[in-house]
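[SOLVED] Predicted holo structure with flavin-adenine dinucleotide

Edit: marking solved, answer below. Original request kept for reference. I posted the sequence and ligand SMILES and asked for the 3D complex as structure tokens.
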Amino acid sequence: MAIAGSGVLPAEVDVAVVGAGFSGLYMLYRLRGLGLRTVVFDDAGDVGGTWYWNRYPGARCDVPTTDYAYSFDALLEEDWVWSEKYATQPEILAYLRHVADRYDLRRDIRFGTRITAAAWDEAARRWRLRTGDGNEVSCRYYIMASGCLSLPKAPDIDGVDRYRGEVYLTGRWPHDRVDFSGKRVAVVGTGSSGIQCIPLIAGEATRLTVFQRTPNFSVPARNGPPPADRVTQLATDRDGYREAARWSRGGVPRELTDVSGVTAPEQVRRERFEAAWQAGELFAILGVFSDQGVNAVSNDHVAEMIREKIRAVVSDADVADALCPKDYPFGTKRPCLDSSYFETFNLPHVRLVDLRRTPITAVTEAGIDTAEESFEFDAIVFATGFDAMTGPLVSVAVTGTDGVTLEDKWQHGPVTYLGLMTTGFPNFFTITGPQSPSVLSNMVVSIEQHVDWIADCLRRLRAENLDRIEPTPLAEAGWVQHNQDCADITLYPRANSWYMGANVPGKPRVFLPYVGGVDAYRRACDEVAEKGFVGFRLDGPAGSRCNDGVIRRLQPDMAMVLDLVASLGLPPIETMSAADARAFSEATAASRPPGPEVGEIADAVLPGPAGDLAYRLYRPPTQGPHPLIAYFHGGGWVLGSQDSDDPLCRDLCVRTGSVVVSVNYRHAPEDRFPAAADDAFAAANWIAANAAALGGIPGQLTVAGWSAGGNVAAITCQLARDAGGPDIASQLLLAPVTDCDLARPSYASNGEGFILTAGLMRWFWDHYADAADRANPKASPLRGTLAGLPPAVVVTAEFDPLRDEGDAYAEALAAAGVPVRHIRARGHTHTSLTMVDVVISGAPVRAEIAEALDSLRSVPARS
Ligand SMILES: Cc1cc2nc3c(=O)[nH]c(=O)nc-3n(C[C@H](O)[C@H](O)[C@H](O)COP(=O)(O)OP(=O)(O)OC[C@H]3O[C@@H](n4cnc5c(N)ncnc54)[C@H](O)[C@@H]3O)c2cc1C
């Protein structure tokens, strides 16, 4: 086979690409198509990347090969037939060689050539790359297709160099077959590579000792011929199947479930699990329940069922126990697919050494010493993983615009825009870089998406006579925040995984890949490009332009709720009668999760100015008496009841350790202004007077409300001050209505698409108050006198039409000398915080509210 890299290295090219695996090969193909002079470097001796280096026995893909293949050329697809569901390393390497031959790619690839340094020359607007053999090449665009798992992690064990036997690293396996027959072999590491090679090495070795630090979840691959259903789908509608993969969550078409592992009955849970177990596919077992990635209870059901399977296979109970992962949620470390991995431990010549119980103390000349034993080996195989995602990038000395290296810039974790570029490093692209879906997806789908985006970007730059592109600090910070927001709602950060950089000593603990999904990610990238490269500064002979901005500000789970709501095509509430609107909101409320358990819930009535008012009391599980919260529900003075804000009241009760008394009040249009405010004031009076009987601590009353409830809560505080009682210790105003002026900017920016619309607010006001009454402080508390009011916690949400009036109230309270904690719920909407156990990202905000209320309780009372 012809290996290229001969001839003189051109001094200048348009594009230099590092890496000749799946990424580099397709990138070269696309760049050629654009007529850009390109050179590709790889320190390997041929194409293949991962599949060139990882030649250990049992090396295979763990995404079915029908899916783990290029889709950019239908003819290529039709010409290549995979022999197995999960192809072996030689077959995947043969495929990539076939691709290189088919498109004559090798002539532009320099093999055996490592890029060691790259520096940006601002004057020339070019990158200058240095190779390991001292050559230089200058390029306009520099693309790292260097892989996420291409830098093996050296075993960090004392004495490795001393060992006299054979040493193998799975990620750098020899090209000649290694024969373990008749040998005493050690395998150190039980991640994906260890789990793949252990059964095969056990088949040859006379004795195999497996050293395990962290047990891994693994699922039987059930390998065989490519799945018939998928082969048929591809044969009948290849384009449709590939397009579905591009817009799927993980890069493989799959029907997503809405079955919760928390609420599904035991039998359903087991049936669903068993089906996924039999399927032998990672995305199946990762998708048994809709909530297993975000809910610890749901996750543990899956984890426990896998542990049951392990115990059923492994005959020695102690060994089985050691092989069962217990200290991290399932899926938060990459799960494995195996062929007879657990069964291998039943063989008489195979032994497991649990390094958590007996750690390795040293590698000796003859083998391995643990705290309890000395082992002698003829060969040691280190399956110790990779310095994943960032390792290959920062191992090159990449120096950007102001002399800062990439390693320095990323010393606290990677900082990127879209995982594609990073500020201060113009014209520098990373394929499947950190903060893109990469290792959480079928990587070939993610690779094609990145390559296509970059190629399209370079095409457009050239078409517009521009030659420099760099993300802005604002866009980059926004993307980093969005990544963090996505990871924070999942269980991923709970594991010490390589996704978190935890396998490499000294590496910052930051969640590296984008967890929002291939589909959401593709949408964001497309949107950036379609809207004129949002968040990028573009320069060149044609001038400069920058459409600065943040592409994703909404909390990711709230965005999913909004997508779902939009997809339902529901009629706007403001088109309904009040009775229909109430029936609709009650039906919606009936389908939500209930919220946390409290100690006791009791329904009763209290006297109002025009008859009894129903209330619901929530008592904490702890011994009382407790602080007391008089709570008023939302619903625009028209909708809602003591029932409607149930999950939020439970949450408030548990988080604040307070008795919550949620009071219903009269509603419009039957009872218009000021009925709601009068009822709230009367209720607060009654609750304060009956504090002890309700289980509350007299003098520790908080008046609270959400939305229109926040409106009547704020007014109640003003009325109480003016009337000289009741004594209110603090007020909690959640996204409150504080003013009748609907012309504030947040009405324009957030008035559509975030559930509470500007139109609905108008409808509420019209039902509640005549125009002449609306400026009355009993309807618009912002227009009242604010001095002398109780200390306040005011919560406003970024995407709420009511945001600006809430902000104005917090500012006016502070200006009037009232102690205020103003919590701005970033990325949230008017309803986010009420969606307990649905919008998980609301939980930290509610925790902050509880902490703020607690701190206000220690503020000295007003004189
Ligand atoms: C054992 C194993 C199994 C896997 N199975 C799957 C799977 O089933 N599904 C899946 O989606 N993903 C899988 N992956 C992830 C896999 O890495 C990707 O799917 C894919 O092969 C990555 O292609 P790439 O071209 O981006 O990077 P790579 O294939 O890693 O290629 C990068 C190349 O760049 C070279 N390089 C890096 N730095 C430099 C430098 N400074 N100078 C010169 N050359 C450099 C490397 O030597 C390497 O050859 C697996 C990974 C491993 C290790």
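OP edit: The chain has a mean pLDDT of 96. Thanks to everyone who chimed in.
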